[in-house]
Amino acid sequence: MKKPSLPRGTRDFSPDTMVKRNYILSTIQAVFENYGYQPLETPALENLNILSGNYGEENDKLLFKILDSGDFLAKVKENPRNFDYRSLTPKISEKGLRYDLTVPFARYVVMNQHDITFPFKRYQIQPVWRADRPQKGRYREFYQCDADIIGTKSLICEAELVRLVEDVFDKLNIQVNIKINSRKILEGIAASLGAEGKEQAFFIAIDKLEKIGEKKVLYELEIAGFNKTSLEKVEEILSITGSNSEKISYLKALLGDIQIANDGLQEIKEVISLSSQLGSSHNYLEFDITLARGLSYYTGVIFEVKAEGVTIGSIGGGGRYDNLTGVFGLEGVSGVGFSFGVDRIFDVMTEMNLLSDSGISITRVLITSFDAELQNHGFVLLNKLRNAGIPSEIFPDVIKLKKQLNYANKKGIPFVVIIGQDEVKKGVYTLKNMISGEQIEADLDALMQAVK
Amino acid sequence: MKKPSLPRGTRDFSPDTMVKRNYILSTIQAVFENYGYQPLETPALENLNILSGNYGEENDKLLFKILDSGDFLAKVKENPRNFDYRSLTPKISEKGLRYDLTVPFARYVVMNQHDITFPFKRYQIQPVWRADRPQKGRYREFYQCDADIIGTKSLICEAELVRLVEDVFDKLNIQVNIKINSRKILEGIAASLGAEGKEQAFFIAIDKLEKIGEKKVLYELEIAGFNKTSLEKVEEILSITGSNSEKISYLKALLGDIQIANDGLQEIKEVISLSSQLGSSHNYLEFDITLARGLSYYTGVIFEVKAEGVTIGSIGGGGRYDNLTGVFGLEGVSGVGFSFGVDRIFDVMTEMNLLSDSGISITRVLITSFDAELQNHGFVLLNKLRNAGIPSEIFPDVIKLKKQLNYANKKGIPFVVIIGQDEVKKGVYTLKNMISGEQIEADLDALMQAVK
Residue B349 has what pLDDT? Predict the structure, then answer.
């Protein structure tokens, strides 16, 4: 006998969880489609030379690698002991599991560039794998849920994504805060500090602000070689407050002579204005100069979303990239995307009691079974219910009615039909409402009406 | 620069393919739910000790194995050269990719046996991975689409699955032939041939009948040690014809003194009768004594489905198993399941022109852009269309109208809205039907009506 177990950091999704997750995913999917994004799926397996080198050295270690099929040692001519595992790996493993949906998307665009009509709007909802240390809320296999538009620099795309994000969370009934910033402004700040060549160090330090606090960020910048005058300027910039337009004005005055900062501020202004024209109420949108986002491929406007009233981290984020496909040989194609964190959204909704346990059963009606002959009457009703599109079951075994009712109860099936000799004689059904406990006699029409 | 490529045997599903696949999958899913099956998802990653030993030695070789993270050689104390790759594998790989949905289902049932209400009806639609030699119609990553009910021996379940299969293919407009048989009848035949202990060899030989023909099957049986009298009896059995009930009567006469064969024949009779009561027309159902199905875990009724009029193999199959969970320590739980072959169904429908290219675009309306000011009017309309649930896009860049029309055309977007100075003055929209080429002036109401 084998003891059944699951790999660490992986999960089964039981039916009650699935129904809730499907509600979240189908809400997002419907909004994606309503905004003109089209579905794409790429394989879980990708060649490792495609995956490696995109996520930074530390993250490359988190790629799951597939052992080559057959005699993988045949290709290793030397004594494997002469290798450390790092140099042996590429000789015995050529494929891995995708780490995100962005790199496969870039690969797809480059491979299909002659068939794709640009601008190309695609959404993709698939699992990804990361050999991270599992912990609460962090899994080794989890879904990503991305929308990207590639092949245009129009800021309408950023504005539409803001609107789309609002739309999704409105539909899910989650109050959110959407932070927006631009890598160009951050670059401008870095430039104003005389930190050319240290931009990435600056982004990474700023990105940690919320996690480690201002003091430690300033300390990290000091270590990275920023001087005292610079640090004072950083402190000043980090402390700005006010409305979005007040912040923009303030920073224009402060950084206006730096072209790239000016461009970034202008873009933020335009995205805010365009999203308003697209129907955004702007109750959610906050220009936040401390938003940096870790990923190195962002070059323009960046976003991040948090839920109000819970202490769960970011539930989505995205931004513009100017050269995602460059690594695969297609230069100069700009795009912008957003990714929803489905697991965290699920956690937020659970914590806020937004995923009710009622209505969990997809099945509406259970027909109980007394004996083989009465089952025939059950079958006739079953066909009628299913033909009317009302998900229904017949209990397959002839056991005590109490046990059959118990089955309906545990599964959350709201209606049970009882067909005994009496009912058959009278040409009616006994219909029990499992929620109210109410029990009525009904003919076919009344029954169909009641269970719809 | 990296040359973008895909691993052999894997595919991208582009938006036009996705729309068609989603149509097939959502049709099957809706029928599953209408019949009371509930969704389940299990992780792609499973421990290899769970996966191995279930599919036969040859198939175990087709498991994709994940290289352990970090220094996988640290655990190998001896010189790896002292191992062949077979004995090294378990030391450097503890996880693999699921090979089917049945074994993960059995693992799930055993791990959650105390929380599950039996009988448990679940469906599961997820990819599986097999390191098979890729060829036309055979992929290394493909979807399976399974429904199982576990925890009851009632033949109503078999009958319901027959009805469900008919229902799915009726909805997909595919003419099918559903073959049905019972492992018990085949065991009875084997017993009548004095072939106790050689049942598996008998099943495997019979299973190849269609592929290699009767002569070669008889030859294989001869090799396996069946004598001349036996072979003559096999020939006789394989050649029976007639209606389902004629075949059952004939075999009852021939095998009636063998208990297990009698049980099997009785079950087939009952499943046919029950499925008829469940609304089956039986135009599709054929009792076929030569159907064996390869998988070793089947113990009762088995099914297989083929499409009429195309030479594509089986597009679905299933059967009853009495001890699927036994390997994980839960004995005596009987179940029955069916699996749809989505890729083959896609191929059948493509070959029969059942997947029309029309209506491929999810987006209904493209709003064109002339200049930034006129775009504002476009935004207003865009919000109204989306709020009404009509998937719509605005072209993000101000480029030549012809190019924007070309975009709509290539993407199969059926309606284009043109908003110029004239239209704004008159308070109307120009609406172009991209299929008929017709162009009308419409106010908001007329436009909404036309594009719905």
Answer: 93
Contact of A327 with chain B, judged by CB distance below 8 Å, is answered with yes
**Segment B359-382 mean pLDDT:** 89
Q: Does B255 touch chain A (CB under 8 A)?
A: no
Chain B, 334 to 393: residues with Cβ < 8 Å from chain A are 361-363, 375-376, 379-380, 382-383, 386, 389-393
The alpha carbon of residue B89 is apart from the nearest alpha carbon of chain A, in Å, by 9
Q: What is the DSSP string of B331-389?
A: -S--EEEEEE-HHHHHHHHHHTT-S-STT--S--EEE--S-HHHHHHHHHHHHHHHHTT
DSSP string, B178-226: EEEEEHHHHHHHHHHTT-TT-HHHHHHHHHTHHHHHHHHHHHHHHHTT-
Q: What percent of chain B has pLDDT over 70?
A: 98
Identify which of A101, A89, A160 has the alpha carbon closest to the alpha carbon of residue A130.
A101
Could A12 and B397 be called an inter-chain contact, meaning their C-beta atoms sit closer than 8 Å?
no
Instruction: Mean pLDDT check: name the lowest of A230-234, A382-386, B37-41.
Output: A230-234
Structure tokens at B182: 């019972």
CB-nearest partner of A81 from B38, B65, B79 = B79
Mean pLDDT over B293-322 rounds to 90
pLDDT tens-place string over residues B257-291:
999 999 999 999 999 999 999 988 877 899 999 89
In chain A, % of residues over pLDDT 70:
98
- Regarding the domain with residue range A15-39+99-351, which homologous superfamily does it belong to in the CATH classification? Bira Bifunctional Protein; Domain 2 (3.30.930.10)
Nearest one of B278, B182, B378 to A394, comparing CA atoms: B278
Predicted confidence (pLDDT) per residue in A62-93, tens digit: 999 999 988 888 877 776 667 788 888 888 99
Which chain A residue has the Cα nearest residue B33? A391
CB proximity B272 to A under 8 Å: no
Kindly determine whether residue B110 and residue A4, on different chains, have CB atoms separated by under 8 Å.
yes
The answer to whether B437 contacts chain A (CB < 8 Å) is no
Find where tokens 């299990």 sit. B42
Tell me the pTM.
0.92
Considering chain B, tell me which residue range(s) the CATH 3.30.930.10 domain(s) occupy.
15-39+99-351
**Is-contact A148 A105, C-beta < 8 A?**
yes
Q: Which residues of chain A from 77 to 116 reach within 8 Å of chain B, CB to CB? A: 79-81, 84-85, 88-89, 92-95, 97, 107-108, 110-112, 115
Q: Which of residues 166-195 of B touch A (CB under 8 A)?
A: 167
More confident site: B231 or A119: A119
Distance from CA of A397 to the nearest CA of B (A): 6
Give, in words, the CATH class of B365-451.
alpha beta
How many Å apart are CA A370 and CA B46, to the nearest integer? Answer: 42
Full 3-state SS string of B408-429: HHHHCCCEEEECCHHHHHHCCE
| B157, B120 Cβ separation under 8 angstroms | no
Q: Tell me the ipTM for this assembly.
A: 0.92
Q: Which residues numbered 54-83 in B keep a CB inside 8 Å of some CB on A?
A: 61-62, 64-67, 69-74, 79-81
User: Which residues make up the CATH 3.40.50.800 domain(s) of chain B?
Assistant: 365-451
Mean pLDDT of A439-446: 95
Rounded to whole angstroms, the Cα distance separating A201 from A224 reads: 7
Rounded to the nearest 10 degrees, what angle do helices B372-387 and A259-277 cross at?
50
Across the interface, whether the CB atoms of A71 and B85 are under 8 A apart is answered yes
B329 touching chain A per CB within 8 A: yes
Size of interface A-B (CB pairs under 8 A): 290
pLDDT of residue B31: 97
Q: Which of residues 117-146 of A touch B (CB under 8 A)?
A: 117, 119, 121-122, 127, 129, 131, 140-141
Cα separation, B169 vs B177, in Å, equals: 10
Q: How far apart are CA B90 and CA B53, in angstroms?
A: 13
